[in-house]
Design a protein that fits this description.
Elements (H helix, E strand, L loop, with lengths): L1 H30 L9 E10 L2 E9 L7 E10 L2 E11 L7 E9 L10 E3 L7 H5 E8 L7 E8 L4 E7 L12 E2 L8 E2 L4 H23 L1
């Protein structure tokens, strides 16, 4: 009887530890702004290629705020050789906060379609997405002899994030594995890198307690 009570106590403490840890993580995820500078991340990357046009849809997340994203460079490459280079500037400089949302072709043969390019973000700050996500669309005509698209994002503090996709993909959707959307919430939360370790330790403690009780009952 005593061993069963001990087992119940261990299980309860393990569950309580996981719940408290998760709540702390959710609160941190909802903070969004006012934390130490962290590098941007790619929430999703999607390429749509039609007749005479290629569109690259980027959703970039910055835990400090979408206002911290300064510049995005997109390179169209072939085996390491740059065939075209496009740039999106969110601001004129890293010290200014007036949005200019300027697209330009740094290298290429007039591939960039300025009228089809766009940048947007939420006008409110109610959710994590509202505070952290910037949506950018690059549009250009197909670049000959190209096999890969490389994207590099810079924040105000000089931190960068890069990602690459195959250029020949007609469609692709790549989500960031550091976020999940629980069914009871309407916005994503960041997954702490050590959450799996916490769950593993709690599971191991529970399993050890069960084995100990079974041995005592024999």
């Amino acid at each position: 009887m005593r061993m069963r009570r001990a087992l119940l106590i261990i299980v309860c403490f393990s569950l309580l530890f996981i719940v408290l840890y998760s709540v702390e993580s959710v609160d941190a995820g909802r903070a969004g702004v006012g934390v130490l500078n962290v590098s941007p991340e790619y929430r999703s990357t999607r390429i749509i290629q039609g007749e005479g046009i290629v569109k690259v849809y980027l959703t970039v997340s910055d835990y400090n705020s979408w206002r911290d994203i300064y510049q995005i460079d997109l390179f169209v490459e072939d085996r390491g050789v740059t065939r075209a280079h496009f740039r999106f500037k969110h601001y004129e400089s890293t010290t200014q906060y007036d949005e200019i949302n300027e697209f330009s072709e740094m290298e290429g043969n007039s591939y960039l379609l300025l009228d089809e390019c766009s940048a947007s973000h939420s006008s409110t700050d109610k959710t994590v997405d509202d505070r952290c996500l910037l949506n950018v669309v690059f549009a250009f005509t197909p670049v000959p002899r190209s096999t890969r698209i490389l994207v590099i994002t810079y924040d105000r503090g000089g931190l960068i994030a890069d990602t690459s996709v195959e250029y020949n993909n007609t469609a692709g959707n790549f989500r960031n594995a550091n976020y999940i959307v629980p069914f009871w919430m309407d916005s994503p939360i960041r997954i702490p890198s050590d959450l799996i370790d916490v769950i593993s330790i709690s599971t191991a403690l529970t399993a050890a307690a069960v084995m100990l009780v079974r041995r005592r009952e024999r």
